[in-house]
Write a sequence for this structure.
């Protein structure tokens, strides 16, 4: 199996128009999902060298860059897609994540501008497909960065209701409540919790 995989990677480096791209994509995505980012990147790049317009390979490269937390590279790739496909949900989704994380590394005005762009990307992604991956929760994390706690909690609850399989959102909701309490203080947080109607809101209100 290892020799077969190695052979496939070597052959994929010289992908031509005659190569079965779907098969190479399947292998690349398998590598990506199992954390073998370097091999996945090699395969995605090989596809794009032969077929520059292959969207799936470009999305794969974005996912690989995000996995490495190479936010600037992933953002550049996302923006390339948006130049020709301005409503591409996946490109907006990843651009939103990248702008959010890049903004967290910047100061004052630059952070505000980056987070504003992130919000625009997330809004476009949600408008296109609110069930896409965990887009509502990723948007919620931006709201958390901005300390907009009620909106962050509301978006996370929407994510859980829309996609119960997104376990990160369920764990994230508990974290949001804890973070909210730590940042605003128990008394102010309790007042806000009384207006919320989810299990964690009731739990923390009862704890108080």
């Amino acid at each position: 199996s290892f020799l077969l995989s190695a052979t496939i990677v070597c052959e994929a480096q010289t992908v031509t128009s005659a190569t079965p791209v779907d098969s190479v994509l399947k292998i690349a995505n398998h590598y990506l999902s199992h954390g073998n980012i370097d091999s996945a990147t090699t395969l995605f790049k090989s596809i794009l060298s032969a077929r520059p317009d292959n969207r799936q390979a470009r999305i794969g490269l974005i996912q690989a860059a995000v996995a490495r937390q190479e936010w600037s590279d992933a953002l550049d790739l996302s923006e390339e897609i948006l130049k020709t496909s301005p409503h591409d949900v996946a490109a907006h989704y990843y651009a939103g994540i990248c702008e959010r994380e890049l903004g967290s590394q910047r100061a004052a005005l630059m952070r505000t501008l980056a987070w504003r762009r992130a919000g625009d990307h997330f809004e476009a992604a949600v408008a296109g497909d609110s069930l896409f991956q965990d887009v509502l929760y990723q948007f919620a994390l931006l709201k958390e960065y901005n300390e907009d706690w009620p909106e962050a909690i509301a978006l996370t609850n929407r994510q859980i209701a829309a996609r119960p399989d997104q376990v990160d959102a369920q764990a994230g909701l508990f974290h949001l409540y804890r973070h909210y309490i730590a940042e605003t203080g128990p008394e102010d947080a309790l007042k806000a919790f009384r207006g919320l109607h989810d299990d964690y809101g009731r739990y923390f209100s009862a704890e108080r």
In short: The radius of gyration is 20 Å.
